[in-house]
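Structure ticket #2291
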Amino acid sequence: MEFDLCLKYLIIYFVIEKYTLELVLYRNIKSNHHGACLVIKKSKFEFV
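Resolution: structure written out below.
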């Protein structure tokens, strides 16, 4: 469930604010909401 939520947010942020991927990553790190999700986000960002 947490993974789905994370991916959902990732897609939303990626679509709406494509130019703020780093900002989203930094924000996620600061809030530390989903630690495991951070790795996926990082991979996704690097992949894309």
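Closing remark: Residues 2-47 form one domain.
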